[in-house]
Amino acid sequence: MKNIPGIVWKNKDGEVIENPGVLPVVEDLNQLPIPAYDLIDLTKYWKRQSMAPIPFRKYASVVSSRGCPYQCMWCHRIFGRKIRMYSAERIVEEIEYLQNKYRINDFEFLDDNFNFDSKRVLDFSELVSKKGLKFKAAFPNAIRADLVTEEVAEAFYNFGTYMCSFALETGSPRLQKFTHKNLDIPKFLNAIDMMTKKKIYANGFCMMGFPTETEEELQMTIDVADGSSLHTASFFTVIPFPGTHLYDWVKQNKPEKLKDLRFTDLDFADARINLTDLPDEVLFDYQRKANKKFYTNPKRIVRLIKDYPKPFSLVVYAPIYFYRVTKGLLNI
Questions:
Q1: How far apart are CA 131 and CA 42, in angstroms?
Q2: pTM of the model
Q3: Which class is 52-330 in CATH?
Q4: Cα dist. 171→21, 206, 220, 246 in Å?
């Protein structure tokens, strides 16, 4: 461990050591070997909840790219702001390896931006078809929705996608610019429509409580999410994590907001930090309203039951569903 630059580790005495230097960037990911899956017990993962909200299945997680060129102010910079990707051939190689060695036919792609290069998506779909591979794919970490075209949506469907997340974050065009995500919201909604028409289960990510956010903008997020064809969605509190542009902004402009923030065992869904200028009760009331409006929509309930990939497993998520509805109805 001591010879690897830039890592933080514990020695045999429990002492935390931070190595100097920075790990060199691997520009061509294709030169990396297939991860040493034999060093972990994959079967233990099958007994736990994966990132995708689909329980009780034999799956493997795959990461086919590193980095993201977008500048979203809340996001990490672990892999840099330049995207580096496996080729379509390299992705297929890893999938074939996992299929042959572990008999796995269900894969979670955890890329930050799997579909940044539309041609790679199309090439991957074509290669999967050419080789006659059969598997299922989930994208629980979200894709960049406003890059999705009808051709790309068809490719996702053709190589077995059954679940995909879509990150709205905010329904406010002003905050899209302020946070540097710059998502095209109409294209975002159209992408979800294209995917759900192909029976792909759609999950959404929303964030509430950005600095300078107003009540009107909180309502925009609620309205966009509820008006979409998403099956499920999470309405997270905005959290300024160290190492992000958001943290730097808050530290400079609203340092008092960081005073009582503790990151140990932090619950993303129920974090109580308010970066807006609104009273706490106003922000958190809008979160409750978001859950209430989204999850009590009768059409959504019907679509959720009809389109969920493993309908008999819905009972596992019933407590979560009713918890979110109850939060909205009882103002807890």
A1: 26
A2: 0.92
A3: alpha beta
A4: 40, 9, 5, 18
| pLDDT score, position 327 | 63
Query: Is there a contact between 166 and 136 (Cβ–Cβ < 8 Å)?
Result: no
Domains of the chain: which residue ranges? Answer: 52-330
Question: Of 263, 167, 171, nearest to 210 (Cα)?
Answer: 171
Please provide the size of the chain in residues: 332
Higher pLDDT, 268 or 121: 121
SS3 89: helix
Query: At 206, which helix (H) or strand (E)?
Result: strand 201-208
By CB neighbour count within 10 A (0-12 exposed, 13-18 middle, 19+ buried), where does 51 fall? middle
Residue 142 contacts by C-beta under 8 Å, 6 or more apart in sequence?
164, 165, 166, 167, 205
The SS3 call for residue 166 is strand
SS3 12: coil
Name the amino acid, one letter, at 26: V
- Which tokens sit at 145? 């929705």
Residue range 269-320, pLDDT digits in tens: 667 899 999 999 999 999 999 999 999 999 999 998 899 988 777 777 777 7
Residues sharing a CB contact under 8 Å with residue 217, sequence separation 6 or more, in sequence order:
170, 171, 172, 174, 175, 210
